[in-house]
Amino acid sequence: MSSTGFLGGAKDRLLPVSVPFRFFLGAVLFHLAAWAVLFGAADWLAGHVGGPGPILAAIHLATLGVFAMTAIGASYQLLPVATRRPLARDWPTKVSFWLLAPGICILTWGMYAAEIAAMQTGAVLVCAGLVVFAVLTADNLRRAGSVALVASHGWGALAALIAFAVPGLLLVWDFGAGFLDDHSGLAAVHMVLAAYGFMGLLALGFSLVLVPMFALSRSLPQRPGQTQLVLAGLALTGFGLGWLTGIPALTWAALVAGAGAIGAYLWLMRTAMARRMRKRLGLSFVLIRASWALLAFSLILGAAVVTGLPIPNAPALFGFVLLAGWLLTFLTGILQRIMPFLASMHAAGASGLPASPSSLTAEMPLKIHAFCHFGALAVCSAGIVLDQTLLVRLGAGLGVLGALAFAGFALNVLWQLKAIRAGA
Amino acid sequence: MTFSRRTAQLLHEDHQATIQVIEALDDLIAKSRKKAPDTSDPAVNKVLQSASTAIEEEISEHFAFEEDELFTRLEEMGDVGIGEHLRAEHAALLPLGKTVADGARDALANGFTDQSWATFRDAAGELIERMFSHIQKEEMALLPALDDLLDAETDMELSGAYEAAHM
């Protein structure tokens, strides 16, 4: 197959492989960095309630570095396929990467070292990169025809992006100027809107397409999908308004709506699994299924934090389960599936025949990653609850090993792709 | 999945039929592993019967229809890459489908030896993986696109011709 065919014209829905993969590779490296920083700062995690330092850096290496990079890379390639509308142009995707990647490095360095100027510079670069992504995505969604449900989740995610990015900038500037009355309250809103809002709505929306596709399941009913979106929107709005007005009932209503949204989502995913034609789904779906349970668990912990239940270090545990538990588990499960899948669409050997996804996949690094990742979740969680630095460090060490194994898997995909194309 | 175009629905039904056959093959390989299965076992016999006929017939007609009637239309719209990739996958799948069908026919007539089972298992394993991946791509990127690609009249014409050819 000719590479020019794939590079195609502006009407082509299949982008050059470099577009999604630069984001995926970035995510893989930030994944390693996030666990490594946590390993070094293990004694700070259990009691973390906000403020600059290594833990805030590790959180943003995960949220922006891993989650946002993965979501943006996947969105650039998958949205045009799902919406049946090509991106208007390819080059802004590269601009967004070259704003985001250095921006994340500078921002998280600033957070690590409590350097205000670095934090501000990094935050501006990151926001600029997110704006480019938002404009490209909004243009694609605007032209989307009959995939209203996926597009609606996309619009919701873009709204959440604005809603978390603006407070994010305020929080960074507040570190220097101290003008906010309730810095930690706004930080909580920022995290909830980023994790459950931006990432959550993208995860919920793409799940409606990707899970049935990989499981070869019949189409999912529309109404529960609409229900999950409406309830998620109500939950996020209620949580934000609850903080703004100080009315506890709004926060409670948000938790109830959030539970409803998660319930609808889990029902849809269970339906997809029950109707699937592909029986053996492999290791990636072990991670994806575990992430669904961790999503529900994160909300239970969130409710425990709101009610002040006597769980030791509950805020840190909630943040860890939400970010490392749900989102990191879900995204590494998805990444290990879509990286070989997308690479195989760009890999044709000397025979001209496309490579199979398994020829681009190394199973052993993925097994090591899964073992280390689940170990890291369990051991770090125990370390947080028991306030044991040694356990947190041990867990983070497992996370580093898992991230190294995952990087091995990702580099192998690229290596195999390069080798196949070189032989063509 | 459900599709608003009849042509997409027919192709989807083909996919379902093919998946049933290759899932059964996948089960057979998973259960037997390196030990050649007994072809006189009714369950094994049934899997080989369907593999000997269904795969080759299904994919050759199905692929030809997509290449002649659908990819050309995608390409005319400027959406070149996906059609080009799916066409290349067809070129990889057709000989594999033939090898598996021939192997199944031979096994039904003569049983498996350790050597012929290993050859069959390797070819079927590759076919299964490539076919699942191929169907996933078509279900996500091709069939939904037929809503835009075909108007109602063309859809009726193509689906009628395809159904007639399948009878």
Structural notes for this entry:
The complex is a heterodimer of chains A (about 425) and B (about 170). In chain A, helix 7 (about 150-175) runs parallel beside helix 9 (about 220-245). In chain A, about 80% of the residues lie in helices and about 0% in strands. Mean pLDDT of chain A is about 90; it is low at about 1-10. Chain A starts with a helix and ends with a helix. With about 425 residues, chain A is an all-alpha fold. Chain A has helices spanning about 5, 20-40, 40-45, 55-85, 90-115, 115-140, 150-175, 185-215, 220-245, 250-275, 285-305, 315-345, 365-385, 390-424. Chain B has about 170 residues and is mostly helical. In chain B, about 85% of the residues lie in helices and about 0% in strands. Chain B has six helices and no strands. In chain B, helix 1 (about 5-30) packs across helix 6 (about 150-165), helix 2 runs antiparallel to helix 3 (about 80-110) and helix 3 runs antiparallel to helix 4 (about 115-140). At the A-B interface, helix 8 of A face helix 1, helix 3 and helix 4 of B.
Shape of chain A: globular
> On the 0-100 scale, what is the average pLDDT of chain B?
87
Through-space gap between termini of chain A: 9 Å
Number of strands of chain B: 0
SSE inventory with pairings:
The complex is a heterodimer of chains A (424) and B (167).
Chain A: H1 3-7, H2 18-40, H3 42-45, H4 54-83, H5 91-113, H6 116-142, H7 148-177, H8 183-215, H9 222-245, H10 248-274, H11 283-307, H12 314-344, H13 363-386, H14 389-423
Chain B: H1 6-32, H2 42-76, H3 80-110, H4 114-142, H5 146-149, H6 152-166
Helix pairs in contact in B: 1-2, 1-4, 1-6, 2-3, 3-4
